[in-house]
């Protein structure tokens, strides 16, 4: 039996193999006043096949019960506690063979938090143009993070490198497109840049792209990029810089294992409205092995430096190891150990966490 596929074509952070093409500095930001024209042309009427409408409701729940130890630092979240990391409730409606819509709510409750966080994770209309080809309008998954979670396969333990470090948003409002041709998959998102949690408009749209190449059935090589202001220049805030991010990833997914790694480099991600340059970079490597149809071992290591210019001593190392038990298609249960080491100018914080992580899907 192969590894559990965490998401389907419409699932929360998984979709058909996505990719984009990045052109670095040649990509221009799109003024918001021209975006409706682009969308109207993209949604030109087409003949729809007469397929009966259908509605599906599904849910995914991520829960962990763990003990957190922050070393010499005393905090209120160190006692054994339960976290409701995510509760995704998804409604999919198919109008016909070409048109569909999805709405997903996202609920989070972390230890010692009150009240819970509730977001509209997805709300989009989709026009399909054949296998792996579609246009989505609204709040939809972004180009890079979607595939990041798919290839790693253990989203319920933690988000991937880009999402975990907040170097990108997993969903955003705008137009999202994917096109497959041969071994290549192109994906792009023209979005607000603010993400799904606090929607707002900047002065121009942001652009994210991904290009994926599958030279073999199980291997994917991908590059991508992001350019924009992340809506941080909303209102009367001055724009000092444009945020940029470049990504590369290589991953292999087999019947009994996964292995992969990715790298990013970013310019001025947090300094769009602040003077002075600052760069960020990081990498992640992961592997898993299916020992039996029900048991698997997995591990992952991240290394990030989030202030190469202003505070070059700032860095973080993240490591996770675990064993997973999958008794049926609805339940995944893992015993997990995590270690995070954070270093700054005169501060060194090492935290450890151990416990049980669970994914329920139905």
* CA-atom Rg in angstroms: 20 Å
Percent helix range = under 10%
The CATH class name reads Mainly Beta
**Low-confidence blocks of residues:** 1-30, 36-48
Shape: globular
CATH topology-level name:
Porin
Structural account:
The chain has helices at 35-42, 143-152, 161-164; strands at 30-31, 54-69, 81-94, 99-109, 117-128, 134-141, 171-181, 184-191, 204-213, 219-228, 243-253, 257-267, 279-290, 295-305, 315-328, 331-343, 348-361. With 362 residues, it is mainly β. The protein has one domain (24-361): Porin, CATH 2.40.160.10. It has a 16-stranded antiparallel beta barrel. The model is unreliable at 1-30 and 36-48 (pLDDT under 50). InterPro entries: Porin_dom_sf.
What distinguishing features does this structure have?
Porin; Porin_dom_sf; 362 residues; 52% strand; 16-stranded antiparallel beta barrel; disordered N terminus; mainly beta
Question: Could you outline the blueprint of secondary structure elements for this entry?
Answer:
Layout: E1 30-31, H1 35-42, E2 54-69, E3 81-94, E4 99-109, E5 117-128, E6 134-141, H2 143-152, H3 161-164, E7 171-181, E8 184-191, E9 204-213, E10 219-228, E11 243-253, E12 257-267, E13 279-290, E14 295-305, E15 315-328, E16 331-343, E17 348-361
Antiparallel strand pairs: 1-9, 2-3, 2-17, 3-4, 4-5, 5-6, 6-7, 7-8, 8-9, 9-10, 10-11, 11-12, 12-13, 13-14, 14-15, 15-16, 16-17
